[in-house]
Every structure is written in C-alpha cells, then in structure tokens.
Design a protein that fits this description.
Alpha-Beta Plaits; DNA polymerase, domain 1; 4 domains; 38% helix; alpha+beta; 12 strands; 359 residues; 5-stranded mixed β-sheet; MutS, DNA mismatch repair protein, domain I
Length: 359
Amino acid sequence: MTRKIIHVDMDAFFASVEQRDAPELRGRPVAVGGSSGRGVVAAASYEARRFGVRSAMPSARAIRQCPELVFVRPRFDVYRQVSQQIRAIFHAYTPLVEPLSLDEAYLDVTENLAGLPSATETALEIRRRIKEETGLTASAGISYNKFLAKLASDANKPDGQFVIPPGAGEAFVGGLEVGRFHGIGPRTAEKMARLGIRTGADLRAKELPWLRAHFGKSGEWYHRVARGQDDRAVTPDRVRKSSGSETTYATNLITPEAVEDGIRAMADDVWEWCERTHSSGRTVTAKIRFADFRTLTRSRSLADPVGDRETLHAIAVELVRGLYPLPMGVRLLGVTLSNLGPLPDPATPGVQMALDLAR
C-alpha cells in the first residue's frame, strides 16, 4: 500500500506565538531571543525574515540588518503548551505521529481516524483546526514518503500546503538544489558542488559505488533520495537518545571564567529538561568551537545517570578545563547528556561518586 504522509510545520512558531499574545507586535519584525551583545536569535517572524534575520544569527548583526527589530524573551513553557494543543489535534486523525520538535511532526494518515478520503483533505482540516484552536498558521507537505513530505512543506509557506503525488517524486527532487535536502548541510553541499553536484538531477546521475567512495555510508541515502525514495516509517515511539543545549556568542569568550559561566548556563538548560522529564544520562559531553570554527568535544561516561545539577556542572566544567589554555576566543559552547535513563534518587549510592569523578 502506498503510504500517505503529511509533514506539518508551524509558521515561525515562537515568533507567531508572541505576536498572537501581544497584538502590538503584529505586523512588526520580531525576534525571539536575547538582545544583549552576546544574544542570539532563536526565531524570527516573517516580517523580520524579509530583512535577512534568521535563527542562530547573533543579535547584534540582526539589529544592524533590521534597526526596527523588536526582541522578545523566549517563553518555552508557553511554546510547549501550544505544542501539546497541536499534537492533540494530530492524534484526532492518526496515532502515527512522530514529533521532530515543538513545531513540526510527521503524520501517517494512510488510514486516518476521521475517515477522510485523501491526505490532502486531512491536511486541510488539520490546518484549519490548528488555526481555529490556537490562532496560529501551519504549512503542510503531503507525499508518499517522509523525505518528500518534508520537502513539500517548504514549497508553499506560510499558511499553505503542497502535494507531491506518487510518480512525481523523482522529477520534483531533480529540479531542486541539493542544499535544500534534509540531511545535507552547508559543508556537504559545498563538497557536492566541488564534485559537480548542484541539483537532485546531478546527484541522481552518480552511481552508487561513486557516492559510497566520496560520502561513505551516507552515499546510499543520497542515492535513494535523489530518486525520491525513502522507506522510513513514521515512528511515534522514537526513543530520545540525548538532550543538549548550545549557544553561539556574538562576542567571542576570551577568559576561562567566561567559558565556565557559559558551560554552566548550557548545563542548566539541559538539567531543566532532566527535571521536566524525570530523565538523566550517563555520558556528559562538552562542546567548544573556537573563533576559527575549529570544534572540539570532550566526553565522560559514568556508571550511573547524573543525579543533580551540581554534578552536571562539575563534570562539564572539568571537561572544558582539559582544553586550557585557550588558544583563541570561543564562539560556541554546548553541553549534552546521552545514554539516557531515569533520573536517580539523590540518596542512591553512586550519585555522589559521579561528582567525585569530576574533581
């Protein structure tokens, strides 16, 4: 049976929530994030995007590009509540919902609970209900596999939808630049360009052995998607493998004290997730990117999941201290917890041992 897959992607989600809740922001360029010298844009409204403002852009640069930009501090608790509303709508149509983030998800509506005859009608109704119940707009891509559905959801944004029907996937992919493919980042796209691959048609012209030789295991994936092929199922029970947080700084950090403050802040973000989900992890990874874009990671695995915020702080800071003296300024820091499991009881033997290991 040919699958019917919908990829729903909320339009400028964080910024749209802020404009919904503060009418004075509607129609104005809005950025969610910090406006200080080291702030970074977490999300931008469509009005801001017209000036070239994008997520992950340093706030100082965003203000230069759009002097009228209005900064709003993020309210993640509100975004999560709205996301839960939207997912409840999804589940009224199918149990096969695979969230990718707070603002996007795959739905398999091959057999939908509403009995609608087509995925196109199902997507229209879902988008209508999202607008009625949350006041926000969503875009949707409809196709016979996940890869094509995600591409399609970008084709008619904002507040639109696009269908790639069976038999049309290969031609659609062939006309796109490979940089638009999910899973092909800027560096891979640059490498492909050096090898003469700029479009899906260029990629399709390469034989599988050649792709394996130049891209390793990813070569097989590129060979399939260049032909519009993707056999991945929508998996609602995806197990989360890690939780992390990272920040790019507008002004490079040049002292160990500033780096350690930044690492603790990233660890705080991760620990908030741990407390919210009653989860933790056995492996702590610290990430540091220098001014020349050289990136290093350091990890430590423990016998038991990290048991408290202070332990996570201590281990993450100890990991970055192993990189001193700093060869140059630092532009990005991150902390990740992996090998996840239940959050241990603070009285459990082994939790204090984790702290001792970091000294």
